[in-house]
């Protein structure tokens, strides 16, 4: 059997990373729908990240008890702290955005992050971003602009939900950059564990101050959303170990049509034609990036 050449192996790893990121985005789209449902049941926003962190710690507990705690010491505490700070802020902004805006619109605005992820990857990671990827990401962003109809938005002034979504996009790009840097030396379990611990430590006291006893239905939504978030975290960590950030960022566009479907099914939100045309543009950009990766 012929051994694949290094460029062919790199191309396969890149395609695998892109596939993992698509799966990650589908998990996070479903997570957002679950958490939005829980917040609409009257639960405070701060309880969402706390629940996510707590469920993550519980999921990792068997691994920790079997000796995984020995794997927690790290030589990159600063990078973990940066990832935690960006993630804590970003997730809270994410929750505000999906609570205050239609689900697909909130996700679409937050997916301006590829425009930020590409230059950040160049500045912070030293990644070489080809013109083809930059142009593909820009075309994808044009699709985002079509979806969110910025003309009407800017004419009326930016709403609090829009500002939260924009902030979520910036912090989301920083999280992706931080995970990429950590992936060079840190296993996915360590990255996920430290973020979960930081989330519980930070949002635990806040949740105690604003505590509202949830219904069993809300509990189910929180647990399911948190489990989806754990799976998404691991998928993101595996993805960035196989493909550069600049290539993975446009894959997140998949979350927009997925969120539109969930919004229509569970929240009676009717997406307009602008969502279809914007999604088609983003899919075209994604297919071009996948084709380029396949060529190596």
Using brief descriptors, characterize the structure shown:
296 residues, mainly alpha
Structure at a glance:
With 296 residues, the chain is mostly helical. It is built from 13 helices and no strands.
Word description of this protein:
With 296 residues, the protein is mostly helical. The chain has one domain. The chain has 13 helices and no strands. It starts with 5 loop residues before the first helix and ends with a helix. The mean pLDDT is 82.
Task: Detail the topology: elements first, then pairings.
Blueprint (H helix, E strand, L loop, with lengths): L5 H35 L6 H19 L11 H24 L2 H8 L2 H13 L5 H18 L1 H7 L3 H23 L5 H22 L6 H25 L4 H4 L6 H13 L5 H23 L1
Helix pairs in contact: 1-3, 1-10, 1-12, 1-13, 2-9, 2-10, 3-4, 3-8, 3-9, 4-8, 4-12, 5-8, 6-13, 9-10
Structural class: mainly alpha
Overall mean confidence score, pLDDT: 82
Using only C-alpha atoms, the radius of gyration works out to 19 Å
Mass-distribution shape: globular
Helix content: over 70%
Q: N-to-C SSE series?
A: HHHHHHHHHHHHH
Largest sheet: none
Q: Uncertain runs with pLDDT below 50, 5 residues or more?
A: none
N-end to C-end Cα span: 21 Å
Helix count from the secondary structure assignment? 13
What percentage of amino acids are in beta strands?
under 5%
Q: Any idea how many domains?
A: 1
Number of strands: 0
């Amino acid at each position: 059997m012929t051994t694949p050449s290094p460029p062919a192996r790199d191309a396969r790893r890149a395609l695998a990373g892109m596939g993992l990121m698509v799966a990650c985005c589908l998990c996070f789209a479903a997570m957002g729908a679950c958490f939005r449902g829980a917040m609409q049941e009257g639960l405070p926003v701060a309880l969402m990240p706390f629940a996510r962190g707590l469920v993550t710690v519980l999921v990792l507990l068997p691994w920790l008890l079997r000796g995984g705690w020995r794997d927690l010491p790290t030589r990159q505490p600063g990078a973990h702290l940066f990832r935690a700070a960006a993630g804590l802020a970003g997730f809270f902004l994410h929750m505000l955005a999906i609570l205050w805006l239609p689900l697909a619109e909130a996700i679409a605005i937050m997916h301006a992050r590829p425009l930020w992820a590409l230059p950040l990857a160049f500045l912070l990671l030293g990644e070489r971003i080809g013109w083809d990827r930059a142009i593909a990401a820009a075309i994808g962003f044009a699709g985002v602009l079509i979806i969110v109809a910025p003309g009407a938005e800017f004419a009326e002034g930016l709403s609090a939900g829009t500002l939260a979504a924009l902030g979520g996009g910036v912090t989301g790009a920083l999280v992706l950059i931080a995970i990429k840097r950590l992936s060079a030396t840190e296993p996915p379990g360590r990255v996920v564990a430290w973020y979960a611990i930081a989330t519980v430590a930070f949002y635990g006291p806040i949740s105690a101050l604003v505590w509202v006893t949830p219904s069993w239905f809300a509990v189910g939504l929180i647990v399911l959303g948190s489990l989806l978030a754990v799976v998404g975290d691991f998928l993101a960590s595996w993805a960035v170990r196989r493909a550069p950030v600049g290539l993975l960022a446009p894959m997140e566009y998949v979350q927009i049509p997925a969120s539109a479907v969930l919004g229509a099914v569970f929240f009676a939100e009717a997406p307009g034609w602008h969502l279809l045309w914007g999604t088609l543009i983003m899919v075209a950009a994604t297919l071009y990036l996948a084709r380029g990766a396949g060529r190596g």
